[in-house]
What we know:
This protein is of the alpha+beta class. It folds into two domains: 29-79 and 279-356, no CATH class; 84-272, no CATH class. It has helices spanning 29-37, 83-96, 133-137, 154-159, 200-214, 218-227, 242-247, 284-295, and strands at 42-43, 57-62, 65-71, 76-78, 238-239, 267-268, 271-272, 280-283, 299-300, 303-304, 314-316, 320-324, 330-335, 337-338. The strands form five sheets. The chain has a five-stranded antiparallel sheet with strand order 3-2-13-12-11, covered by helices on one side. It is globular. The chain starts with 28 loop residues before the first helix and ends in a 28-residue tail after the last strand. The model has no long low-confidence stretch (mean pLDDT 93).
Amino acid sequence: MAITGIPNWVIYPKEDWVSITPEDAGLDEDRFQKFIGALDLRGAAFGGEDHSDLKWGTVVTRGGYLLYEWGNRNYRFQTASVGKAFARAVFGLAVEDGLVQPDDLIADTWTGEGQLSHKHKYMTEGHHKTLTWSHMLGSKDDNKHYGGFPIELGSDWRNGPGHESPLGREFIPAWAKWTGDPSYDLYSHVEPGTVGYYSSGGFWRLGQALTALWKRDIKEVLDERIFCRIGIPSDRWLWYTGRAIQKHKFLYPDVPDAYTYLDPPYEIDGTVVRSAPGWVVISASDLARYGHLVATQGIWEGERLINPEWLRGHGGGNHSGMSGESRHYTAMGMVTTDGVDYSRTSAADSFLPNDMFVEQVRIRRG
C-alpha cells in the first residue's frame, strides 16, 4: 500500500545509529526477549568462507533507531547477490532521469556489437531482438529474471546436465541449450518473458547494458544519488567489478570457478563494468540504512531520493541480505550470518513477528 507521508516518530541516522530500548521502540518487552533469546546467530559457513570470531554481523532497526545487533555490525564483506537490488535502483534512477523506459528494447541503447565475445550474444541477434529492460530486471516479487539467460554458476554449467552442485541443486534448466562452455552459452536461449529463472548471468549482462546506458560507473551513480545521501560515504563500500570476480576462482573456496561465465566487455568506452549480479562489500549497519530507505519508500529527511517501485530488499547466498518494510518501519541488514532465515531479508514484512508491536516508537526525554 502506498503511503502519503512518513510518521513523525521516524528519524534518519546521522554518522551512526541511535540505540533504542525495545520498550521505547513500541514492542512488547517480554515477547521481544523471548524471540531474541530463541535465536542462535553466528558466522555463516558457506562455500568455504571463514566467518569465525566476529567476521559477521546483523542489525535490526525500527523507525530509524538501532533496536538490536549481533556480531560485529561494522564488519564488511562481499554480500553475494544483494547487489541485484542496487542494480534495480540504478535502472530506476535512469527511468526517473528520462534516459529510458522499462519496456524499451536493450538494443536501442546497447547492441554489444564488437564488444561481446560472440555474434550470437549481440542484442541484435536471436531472442535478444525482443529483450527489454523489464525482462532483464525481473520481477520485484519473485527475484526471477525473464530474459532467457540460464546460467547461475559457471562451474555447474561446465559439469553438465544431471550434475548436482555442491550447493545441492542442479543449475541447468531443461529449456537451455548446453555446450559446456559457460562463456559461450551466456545468451538468451528462449523468447524473453516466457520463463522465469534466477540468473546471475543475466544480471551480468544487465550490468553491461546499464553501464552503456549511463555512460559512467554505476557505483558513482549510486554514490551520488543515494548512498552519500543516506550516510554511506563512497569509501565505506565497494562494488567489485566483473573482471575482478571473473578472475577470482576461489571467491567461495569450496565452489571454485563459479563465475567464469562473466564475459567481456569489462569496460565500455573506458568505463568499468561493475558486477550487477552482486558482490558488494558492505557492513550490516550500512545495509540497514538502505533497508530504512526501503521502509520509508525512498524518502530521506523529507526528500524523495527514488521512486519506491525501484527499491527492494534482497538476500545473498552467503547468508547476507537487507530489507525494509513500511508497516512498522523496521529494517534489517545482515552480513554472513547463520541462525536466521536470511531469505526473509527480501520479504515485504518485518523480521519481527507482528504481534510483538504494541505502539509506535516513543522516546523518553529528560
